Amino acid sequence: MPYTKADSQLHQIFEAYKQRTIKRVFFVACGGSSALMYPSKYFLDCESKHITAEVFSSNEFIHRNPQSLNEHSLVILCSHKGKTPETTEAAKFAKSKGALTVSLMYVEHAPLADESDFIVNYSWISAGHMEPHPEIMNYAILYKLSMGLLYIKEGNRKYEKLLSSLDNLGGVFEKVMKQHEEQVKAYAEQYKDEKIIYTMASGANYGMAYSFAICILMEMQWIHSHAIHAGEFFHGPFEILDKDVPFILLMGLDETRPLEERALAFLEQYGEKRIVIDAKTFDLTGIDEEVKGYLAPLVINFVLRMLALALSKARNHPLETRRYMFKVPY
Amino acid sequence: MPYTKADSQLHQIFEAYKQRTIKRVFFVACGGSSALMYPSKYFLDCESKHITAEVFSSNEFIHRNPQSLNEHSLVILCSHKGKTPETTEAAKFAKSKGALTVSLMYVEHAPLADESDFIVNYSWISAGHMEPHPEIMNYAILYKLSMGLLYIKEGNRKYEKLLSSLDNLGGVFEKVMKQHEEQVKAYAEQYKDEKIIYTMASGANYGMAYSFAICILMEMQWIHSHAIHAGEFFHGPFEILDKDVPFILLMGLDETRPLEERALAFLEQYGEKRIVIDAKTFDLTGIDEEVKGYLAPLVINFVLRMLALALSKARNHPLETRRYMFKVPY
């Protein structure tokens, strides 16, 4: 892989990691940018002996004002165009507490960059297209930041496995795209008139379910939705299930897969409308066994973005249509 | 206040607190019992300098298998009847990692008790009735456990304010009941035919929104729902809002109130169906200023339980009706 701008930005951040004690990571962003961070929190929860991780929506972070935020904190923020006011404010707030602040954005210059110690620019491409640089897409950068942290601080070797696997992610995406091309169109036709569609997942995949529910279904398609945790499903939400209630179930390869399998069995028995995106059906050649659970959500998300596009076409409701966002004051 | 059984159980737990270093608290439960714990996590996030807190659904906790779970962890669990299999399993798992395990339950003997170092029995009464012992209701016990922890470990004095305030909580409930008696019936009549009702809140109140969505609306009334975080609302979910989409907005008194106020302004401008439960309208005489933000959600929840009962009556759908829970294998 050629040495990219993002690599050079990451190199500087890793040097900064080495120069301070880091006890706690705060992942801070809003909406879809926040959902991006769930897999990295999952990784830190699972593997870090000494560093704890937390995900907060930007404004909640500022107002909750965690006392554990200090010079031993790493705050990772993200805003696609670097202009989300709450996130810029959160970076400023975190810096005022002495934390190391690292912000991801697609653009090169933005208010968020001005308030951050370091930035990383990620690559991005709209739904339904191939990702030309999956190794520097937003999720990949976030894993590099979190796995890189544990590599430096705790000698965790997943970072090396991540790097070699990311080199092969483009190939995986290509195969998954071919595999699902017809399938997502069929799903879109089948579910285009639904008024409500729930999403469900657990572990590293939950963020994908959250993102699809709030950004794709609610925001971009005006379909009622919300993400249900596959474990919580059995403690309340499952009573809503009937033959005519559609669910999108994500099934990953991480340690929590048994929760998703249990949910699947129930959906199969009592529901009739479901879309199951199962990472077990993917050809993941080139992805190291040890990071498959962590990378599966990125591949699942690739399929979800194909589904989003197919749904928007079947419904004649472009993904760009908004009634409030960036249109009215709020 | 008479010295209760719960007080004696708490006394033993506080002695155990003194005998070990506690770096991290895991709140572990399922569904409604998990939602109970959000306010205590909020308190620890806001006020603890050294102790971090995390809420996990029981099965997610076991499978995620956090590396930071060890002999310096306090794991607080809850199950009303002490028979939730995932939670019992989680207690066993936490003990095997050397953590101090404390379990709340309504019943005296249960599988969960057998797997825990300590238990606390809370008082409980069904929706729409007065709470005869609010100072030992589940939320109060959880605050005693978390505020007591910071009292012992960091000299945080909120615990003292909590105790004196809890003595007056019954009086607050009585006044709030009278204040809302007619209002909840009117709301129930107005919204009884809705197919979907969202809930929304932030900070210490978010757990109440989550609980009402998954336990009352989805589980007990079979109404589509989910809890939206008031900050996240503006980053996707708000696009679903239209004049005919009902929201229940909870407004508390904690530091995140500006988020709820911003959501209210938007709901008022673009929606027409909303139930607002605002703690600012409550007579909180006897509740110490310093813990009002923490105790407001308990009072909000009292109103929500009145609303649940009113809704169930208006819809002729008893709160006890289930199609799957405890009826079919899952």
TrEMBL record, chains A, B:
Pfam families: SIS. Its EC number is 3.5.-.-. SUPFAM superfamilies: SIS domain. InterPro entries: FrlB_SIS, Fructosamine_deglycase_FrlB, GlmS/FrlB_SIS, SIS_dom, SIS_dom_sf. Residues 13-155 form the SIS domain. GO terms for molecular function: hydrolase activity. The keyword Cytoplasm does not apply. Keywords: Carbohydrate metabolism, Hydrolase. The keyword Hydrolase applies. Homooctamer. Catalyzes the conversion of a range of fructosamine 6-phosphates to glucose 6-phosphate and a free amino acid. PANTHER family: FRUCTOSELYSINE 6-PHOSPHATE DEGLYCASE, GLUCOSAMINE--FRUCTOSE-6-PHOSPHATE AMINOTRANSFERASE, ISOMERIZING. This is Fructosamine deglycase.
